[in-house]
Amino acid sequence: MCGIIGIAGQHDVFPELHAGLLALQHRGQDAAGIVTFNNTFKMKKGLGLVSTVFAERHVPRLAGPMGLGHVRYATQGSNEELDAQPMAVNYPLGVAMVHNGNVTNFGQLRRSLYQENHRLVQTTCDVELILYALAAELETKNLSRISVDEIFECVAAVQRKVQGAYSVIAMIANVGMVAFTDPRGIRPMVMGQRFDDEGPAYIFASETNVFDYLGFERLRDVQAGEAVFVDMERQVHTRICERAKPAFCVFEYIYFALEDSVLHGRTVAGERVRMSRPLAATFAKSGLAPDIVIDVPSSAYFFASGMAESLEAPYRRGLVKNPHMGRSFINPTQEARERTVRQKLNPIKDVIAGKKIAVVDDSIVRGTTARHLVRMLKDAGAAEVYFVSASPPFVHPCVYGIDMSIKREMIAANYSVKQIARYMGADAVVYQQLEDLQALYSDLPCCFACFSGVYPTELSDRDLEELEQERVCSKNK
Ligand code: AMP
After folding, report:
1. The pLDDT value given to residue 326
2. N or C: which end of the chain has fewer CB within 10 A?
3. SS3 for 319?
4. Does ligand 1 have an atom closer than 6 angstroms to the CB of 368?
5. Which domain CATH number covers 55?
6. Number of domain units in the chain
7. Tens of pLDDT along 253-271?
8. pLDDT tens for residues 398-425?
9. Which residue's CA is minimally distant from atom 8 of ligand 1?
10. Do 91 and 153 fall into the same domain?
11. Could you give the CA distance from residue 169 to residue 158 in angstroms, rounded to a whole number?
């Protein structure tokens, strides 16, 4: 999972790209990078947080009226500097690119790019493939006067070749900026506009929270299979290049996007409240009656407060999160993950002691977080602990860029709900029902593959095996 941003503005956009990446930092903390264009590409990228990669001294060198930014959370591929984005080529003309998602036909594409286009893929990062695929298509055109139609033809050809989930922003030197998604629009990308004194400025980003910080107005989401091209005069051209049945990743609403973002016209906070209604109904059916409902901060706040409202039980802040701790999820070993969870969350004993507690988290993947929380709450004196997951059970790997792709690690793929409760030491475990979640999205076609096993793109058992194998390898690196 990653965060991307692109701005085609009227004056230096580097400070805005930098601020935008800070607003997207929750989407990736492994690496960060920015490239601007001002007669030539100027790039700076590296491993770590945005605040680690960029220093004051980079500001003058990176000035330019158009640019791209990226924050990376390595899902597929290794976490090396070589894999950081943006990436760029200078033949047949300068193209720089950022992307969010996961290419599912990596091996086959790498081979064909080498055999047919003589391009040697050097990294394990998907964007390199998409970049070469676009460069190879551009090479077939007369580049001294490439037309808008031809740019869309090139994007369509890339969309036909590249399988999987991807939201991409590319800058083509002296031609413009083009943003496009895979034919199903699995990963998010939104578009905004601002009128500066010198003329309009356009922005593309993974989430709209960036627009609010930078003073852009949200125009709309980039549609499934659509390409939006902003030329050097800041004229906007759009086309649906390759369309398949849309399948927007529902986990963006559950976990990834921030509460203040608007995706497909819906605020993430509002979606979490909507999801809390059927979750509360399922919980009520179990006959349990909590004294209080608490959340695992911070993504579960709207699930827990919404559920409390429906159950007419008080919502309380029962856990404090240390904001300076790293993420537990991406630690390489179980022991390290458990240690991080312990150091990251602390119960407020006065709130917890003597109470029957429903504790709500966005999801249970391996069960590490939940198990430690249950123990922590019991140690703090909780009378009973009911662990509630706002996601249905994860039983299938995500091949579209969410980091949970090893099936043998997913607790719900291997154990029953009763066994999971026993493992956690919880008095009950309650999951969101998949049918309830699907019913909430009858008017917005979503991808539920990690819960249902129904993958919206073509995927053979062999592809799945290869992807899982790659994931195991990169985790062991
Ligand atoms: P686990 O301890 O393995 O069950 O992980 C579940 C916790 O990790 C939940 O508290 C989620 O907030 C968080 N989480 C779920 N999915 C992801 C993901 N793809 N990347 C990072 N964190 C996640």
Report:
1. 59
2. C
3. strand
4. yes
5. 3.60.20.10
6. 2
7. 999 999 999 999 999 999 9
8. 999 887 667 888 999 999 999 999 999 9
9. 329
10. yes
11. 13
pLDDT tens digits, one per residue of 179-202: 999 999 999 999 999 999 999 999
Distance 471 CA to ligand 1 centre (A): 16
Alpha-carbon separation of residue 408 from 126, 279, 365, 474 (angstroms) = 24, 26, 11, 16
Indicate whether 292 and 362 sit together in one domain: yes
Question: For tokens 């690496």, what's the residue?
Answer: 31
Atom number, ligand 1, closest to the C-alpha of residue 361: 10
**Whole-number pLDDT of residue 1:** 82
Asked if the structure places residue 253 within a domain, the reply is: no
User: Of 365, 369, 431, 450, which is best to mutate to test ligand 1, by the most ligand atoms within 8 angstroms of its C-beta?
Assistant: 365
Domain assignment of residue 237, yes or no: yes
Ligand 1 atom closest to Cα of residue 330: 21
Q: Are 199 and 285 within one domain? A: no
Residues 6+ apart with CB under 8 A from 24: 3, 4, 5, 69, 71, 205, 206, 207, 209, 210
pLDDT computed for residue 56 by the predictor:
86
Distance 333 CA to ligand 1 centre (A): 14
154 has catalytic annotation:
no
**Domain match, 390 and 288 both:** yes
Give the Å distance between the CA of 463 and the centre of ligand 1: 24
Return the residue whose CA atom lies nearest to atom 11 of ligand 1: 363
Phi, psi dihedrals of residue 189, rounded to the nearest 5°: -160, 125
Question: At 135, which amino acid appears?
Answer: A
Q: Is 369 in the pocket of ligand 1 (CB under 6 A)?
A: yes
Residues 6+ apart with CB under 8 A from 301: 259, 272, 295
Q: Which of 219, 247, 275 is the last residue of a domain?
A: 247
Q: Are residues 333 and 443 in the same domain?
A: yes
Alpha carbons within 13 angstroms on the beta-carbon side of residue 81 total 5
Ligand 1 atom showing the smallest separation from residue 403 Cα: 19
Is 336 contained in some domain? yes
How does residue 464 score in pLDDT terms, banded at 50, 70 and 90? confident
d(CA 255, CA 95) in angstroms, rounded, equals 32
* Residue of 2, 398, 446, 450 marked active site: 2
Domain assignment present for residue 53? The answer is yes
Find the length of the chain.
477
The better pLDDT of the pair 58, 404 is held by: 58
Tell me, what's the pLDDT at 100? 97
Residue 174's φ and ψ, nearest 5 degrees, are: 60, 15
Nearest CA-CA partner of 342 in 366, 365, 325: 325
- Closest ligand 1 atom to residue 365 Cα is 4
